[in-house]
Specification:
Layout (H helix, E strand, L loop, with lengths): L6 H4 L9 H10 L5 H15 L1 H14 L23 H4 L1 H12 L6 H13 L3 H10 L14 H7 L4 H13 L22 H10 L13 H4 L4 H8 L6 H15 L6 H12 L6 H10 L8 H4 L3 H7 L2 H9 L12 H13 L1 H9 L7 H10 E4 L3 E4 L5 H12 L4 H12 L9 H15 L6 H10 L15 H4 L4 H10 L15 H18 L4 H10 L5 H17 L1 H7 L3 H20 L1
Antiparallel strand pairs: 1-2
Length: 593
């Protein structure tokens, strides 16, 4: 088998705590795994899923065996195993983990515990995780400490400043099939499955008044009848504000480059063409450049709109932006789509693109694109596959050419990042083939061939790709008998998984615990019972005050329309006191206004 190289020498570290899932895969991938081998497996799982995810998965499985339906099963100190990074990909699992652990105990921890943990998230700059914690955790007035709001709520509020617009454009650049960086909270705009819909939400609430309004997909004019009225109203004005000009220009370009327009889209396009005189010279020049009426335009003229335009752009337009001096540093988020367009252009016009990329050397994201270009080949336009003839030694050498001399662990991380991008299902395993070869050569460990397909499936469970979380339904994971892994999948699927994991849990205690925990969390997140409403209102962790008003109205409606439930509900004297205080507090606010 050869000499095992020290893990710190290879860059794997030696602090990875091993658990049942680590042992499960160590037995699947290795003949006789040693403690050092298990340490490597633990590291590989952390690289694929995230350190905090693995802490949650492994510790949950440990605690679940002690569940008896009462008492504190999960100790307060469990939180200390998380590493708060400020990165939403790593940190937004923490609020969900704490919610699961709260439901494993028979009652919440004291309120100061949740406030202390929230303070730690805020101190580390983990704003997305802090918001989710305030949204999900059972303690009073957590949200009062959190200033961050997700993009959906920024659109709800309106009056976008530069930072709010930046957050919204970041999500739009990711696209409807890109990574969903943050996990979800308990309110309707906490999660963002279709980022381009943000433009529609803005129009519906605030009218066609801001440049982002022009970024919805034209076909939505047919499917969303509420869009046409505000757009027509804004376009009918005798003159257009800067915001309306930006929105109108972007919508015009979007409609003009659409391959097929239906009746509603054609009507709006006709209105726009009849009102082109309302654009100022700058916007007319940008339109003419896109319509090939002028060959060049000063890049600084479109710089303020470059992220909006890239949301709409195709390969032809992206190439035009490069021709006038596009700087990647001006692009807020380099999406998979942008990476693919750059790679396609590199394979089409190598010298021209290499010259342009040299000018972007101060942007560290370019290196990932160079690696993607080396390992990919494009067929049928944007459809990418991994080059079948590549060997792991070639890939490892190319990584060193691009990134310099780096250790084995960093090479694996880079390849895992590449595997998270969308490749053909038939070729994704090829990246894990490279990882397999590099690990085997560097660590002198003979992995079983199962490693390649297993590791590919594990990478797909990375939570920003949760649209594809059905991967856990594959039997490799189901037969793990690992409740922590099953509950992680529940988080990925909003607790609406199609699989009944109870059928795969061997212990009676664990089965009962799993059902009880899922039931509690589902009630907390989705059930609109009077008790759930009352608790949310009393905890006062709403993103905006008017959302609290909506919850109070819903609660009063339920009280007025559910005679039997109300008689049962108010048998508890404490609930009467709670409800009385809520109504009185609201009444006091109205009196002082």
């Amino acid at each position: 088998m050869g000499t095992y190289m020290a893990s710190d020498e290879l860059g794997f570290g030696h602090t990875h705590r091993r658990g049942a899932l680590t042992w499960y895969f160590a037995k699947r991938w290795l003949e006789k795994p040693s403690p050092k081998d298990e340490q490597l497996i633990a590291w590989l799982l952390e690289v694929a899923l995230g350190r905090n995810v693995m802490h949650f998965i492994e510790r949950t499985d440990e605690y679940i065996g002690e569940w008896v339906g009462r008492g504190e099963i999960v100790p307060v100190g469990a939180f200390n195993g998380f590493m708060i990074t400020g990165d939403p990909v790593e940190d937004t699992i923490i609020p969900h983990a704490v919610l699961v652990w709260t439901c494993m105990n028979d009652r919440p921890w004291p309120e100061e515990v949740y406030h202390d943990w929230l303070d730690k998230l805020l101190a580390a700059g983990s704003k997305e995780a802090a918001y989710l914690a305030a949204s999900l955790w059972p303690a009073h007035d957590l949200m009062a400490k959190v200033t961050y709001r997700p993009p959906g709520w920024l659109v709800y509020r309106g009056q976008l400043d530069a930072e709010a617009e930046r957050l919204i454009l970041t999500e739009m650049l990711k696209g409807d099939y890109g990574p969903i960086t943050s996990l979800y909270g308990s309110f309707k705009y906490d999660d963002l499955i279709y980022p381009r819909r943000l433009a529609e939400y803005y129009i519906d609430r605030h009218g066609f008044t801001h440049p982002i309004c022009g970024l919805f997909k034209p076909a939505r004019l047919y499917y969303n009848a509420k869009l046409k009225g505000p757009i027509k109203e804004a376009l009918a004005e005798p003159s257009w504000s800067e915001g309306v000009q930006g929105a109108a220009m972007l919508l015009y370009l979007s409609l003009k480059t659409s391959h097929r327009l239906m009746g509603d889209e054609m009507k709006i396009l006709n209105i726009l063409e009849e009102n082109l005189f309302k654009f100022d010279e700058r916007h007319i020049n940008i339109i003419n450049f896109h319509m090939d009426k002028i060959e060049k335009i000063d890049y600084d003229l479109i710089k303020d709109y470059i992220n909006h335009l890239i949301v709409l752009s195709d390969l032809k337009m992206f190439e035009k932006y490069i021709s006038i001096g596009l700087r990647t540093k001006d692009i807020i988020y380099i999406s998979n789509n942008i990476k693919h367009m750059i790679c396609i252009l590199m394979q089409k016009e190598k010298e021209k693109l290499e010259s342009w990329l040299e000018k972007q050397a101060d942007d560290s994201r370019i290196k990932d694109i160079l690696l993607l270009n080396y390992i990919s080949i494009y067929i049928y336009g944007y459809y990418s596959i991994i080059k079948g003839e590549l060997e792991d030694e070639q890939v490892e050498k190319k990584i060193e050419d691009i990134y310099g001399k780096i250790n084995c662990s960093d090479k694996v991380r880079l390849l895992v990042d590449q595997a998270r991008m969308r490749f053909s299902n038939n070729y994704e395993y090829k990246i894990c083939d490279f990882i397999y070869g590099i690990l085997k050569r560097q660590t002198k460990i003979n992995f079983k061939s199962k490693f390649i397909k297993d590791y590919e499936r594990i990478i797909r469970l990375w939570h920003p790709n949760r649209r594809n979380s059905d991967e856990l339904e594959e039997y490799t994971f189901l037969k793990s008998n690992h409740v922590g892994l099953y509950l992680y999948h529940e988080i990925l699927s909003d607790y609406r998984t199609k699989v009944n994991f109870k059928d795969y849990i061997s212990g009676e205690t664990e089965r009962k615990a799993y059902s009880a925990i899922k039931g509690k969390i589902t009630e907390n997140l989705y059930t609109k019972t009077m008790s759930a409403h009352l608790n949310k209102i009393e905890n006062n962790n709403f993103p905006y005050e008017e959302i609290k008003d909506e919850f109070i109205k819903d609660l009063i409606y339920n009280i007025n329309n559910n005679n039997y439930e109300i008689s049962e509900f108010f048998k508890d004297l404490d609930r009467i006191k709670q409800f009385k205080e809520i109504i009185l507090s609201k009444f006091r606010i109205y009196i002082t206004q």
